[in-house]
Amino acid sequence: MTFLRNDSKRTRSLSILGIGLLSIAALSCGKASNDAAEDPGTGGGGGTPTTGAIDPENATVTLESTKLQLASDLVLLPAKDGAVKLALKGARGTSDAEARKLSLRVTNDAFEALDRVSNIMCFFSQTKFWEQANKGKYKAFIDSAKCEKEEGDDEGGGRAQELVEAFVESTREEGKPLKARVKFEMRGEDGSYETYQGAITVAAPPSDDNPAGIFVMSYNGYSDEGLTKPAGHGYIRTSKTQDGKLLLEFTTKESSNRGGESYSGQGAAAAILEKDGDDFKGVLNSDMSNTNERDGKKESFRSQYKVRFDKDNLRITGKGPMWSQGGMKIVDKAGCFDRNKFRTFIWQYDLTDAKNALVELNSGFQIEATVNGKTVNGNAGYHGIWFPPNVDVADGAKVNKVTWVKGKKSLTPYTYAEGPGRMIKFTRNQATLGQLKGTDFMLWEFNEQGGGEYIVRWNGTKFQKVAMRTQSMNGPGEEQTLATPIDLTPANFPEWGLRLRSVALDAEINLQKGVTLSDAFKIAYHSETVVTKAADFPQGNLLCFGACPKIAMTTDDLKMRSSDDDKPVPGCPPVWSKANQLKTVVIPTQPEPTECSSDSAPNLSNMESAIATFTWDANAYAIKQGATTFSLTAGSSNEGNEGGEGKKQSGGSYQSGPLFPEGEYAKLSTETKAKWPDQAAQDAAVYYKWQTGTDKWSRFSGLQDATGKFVSFDRPLDLAYTHTAASDFDGDSTNPAIGKLWRLNYGGPGQLWGMPFREFDDVGFSGSLFAIASGTKIGAYTVFPVRGEQRMRAAAAKVCAKLDVTKMPELPKLKDAKVKHTDLKGDFELRYNGGVAL
Q1: Integer angstrom CA distances of residue 652 from 61, 359, 576
Q2: CA distance 566 to 637
Q3: 47-73: string of b/e by CB count within 10 Å (b at 16+)?
Q4: pTM of the predicted model, to two decimals?
Q5: Cβ–Cβ contacts within 10 Å for residue 537, how many?
Q6: What is the pLDDT of residues 479-527, one digit of tens each?
Q7: Rounded (10°) CA dihedral 56, 58, 60, 63
Q8: Distance from C-alpha of 633 to C-alpha of 552, rounded to nearest angstrom
Q9: Is the Cβ–Cβ distance between 584 and 598 less than 8 Å?
């Protein structure tokens, strides 16, 4: 499960896809002691004070089962924000009223262990086991993406579902705690296997005075179906003393060995939280360590923190890992922080429309199919069809849409269809340089060292390269500020223009050589849409003037080449020619190519005549040339290209040049038609590109109804947003994003993305450049933050002098869990998907 890994931000684990939720830790369970403690962490000679502690497994409980909820988040420090009433329980539903409740948490790297506990609670809470007490065994899909605590990388879309199938049963005896059993199995694409089995007992739900509730969890993990190869075990335990203190204990131990990579780790933490008026005070003691071995290189890391806080400040002593260009290193993270001054980072937002209703796009639905005699579940949506790894649903297979009405399952039949490629529509928009002043543009340049990516900014009078972004195999890349900015003068732009990618617009722009630039200068950019709706289908002829698709393509055509002898060169993109768009250009000076050619393929000097004309075949979801529909078939060798060190690469991908609708082409000026196709496309209101490849992500997948019509899904909304001091969540009038135009996208409740990331030294954290305040208007919509975190800003060391970090609760000792649910597997009824009842 690799839950404790400090490199989890860059390495996705097999089963929970990167957040390792099942290092379910904790319970150094034991009987309540008689040690008293007036101040958190001082009782029992430094041990955990457990005076009259309520044992979650033996408590007397009179609440109804449905009240014994497990919180979806653990809030140790209440968040602070004057504009919104905060929900400590961390749970929200889908109604408009609940969508407006914001769940914030205050955190710091020293709370790493408790963040992991919070992830686990979020994970298990999606099974909603308290609603199913004594109702028999059932299945639930757990969406691990909902539990990610970082804002994530912005890879062109909102956070897609990352589903894990869980088998669940919960039981309740009158007057006793609620008990739940959970089991789930995961198979990786590399053939690896893991199963985890957990037991949960809940004696009290979360409340304003006790945000964690009273519960205990235990788990065992195995890496084989026979349950003989342990992969991890641990406990979480919370309880409450008679004098009102919340006690939390957490331990875990894990190991894995897959694909030449091994990992082992263990950790423990103990926290005490005490009500202090309307706030809390408390302590945290934690010790987490792990060892990773990859490609013969072993790295070991350890985080040790002691924390004490009151209503005003938080003090930390200890060391922990920090990523840098050279990898991870352990640094001193001691510091004093102000609990009243924050930077806010929001992970999820909702939108409401003009009628005050939550905007819920038709983004997809649950489907099921039968593969090798077994029922498998998946999802259909705007970005295509998802099934679990290693589940191969054949083109033309019958699948069913799954709908649940009052607990009864209803199936609607569809046909699963794969297109040989996918069509992308480009729609022209405009913005001024003044709106983009100070925002990041990205520029890739080749040089003697191979090239690099520069950060470019418009300062009101000129473009300047201000930093270079480096890449690292051992962690996130870094931005290296240039000692002296480098001017980019229009007179010295390349002949083909200066090509930049605007981070704010999430689009490519092309500035022509010699152009006169100012804040008022209008730049054109095109937003991209993967064609799924009939309204976006191309109509009439599509004219191609360069890099045109070959109508009958083989996988051999997708191999990377750099000379006409068809000899692949590692890592080289295809080089196009007019005569044969998929053959490469002869380079006489390089008969035995060993590196990529920087020469451009010959293109038409103007666009007076098309190389090829295509039309759209809606039934086949493909382009046509005459009566022939595009096809992609296996070539003589489907092994792909020779990779480095004798390894094979997995085929290739292809995207055509611009395909101009004939009517749009007719509207272009004579001057525009004299440009190269890619330049001319910048002036077109609409154009298309055809994409295909050996990997499924390069091609279309969708569902057809009984008439053969493709089911359409809503495209994420494109939103033009200008950040202001009034719309800044923290009211920070100095935020560099203020006054700048940003292109945001909304994919449904909780999914608003497009904010750039920056490193903030005052909180020691990298997050989105800005957070949007509740009630902010974006066009016809209103924004409501739903979930996020606040990072405390640094304070003077002297104000923390009163916070003693020498007296800490003892760390619990790890005990082996004894959890096995051999009967939790089968064709159980599916009742929840991502915490939502079906």
Answers
A1: 61, 38, 15
A2: 13
A3: bbbbbebbbbeebebeeebeebbbbbb
A4: 0.61
A5: 16
A6: 677 889 999 999 989 887 888 998 888 888 888 889 999 999 998 889 8
A7: 40
A8: 8
A9: no
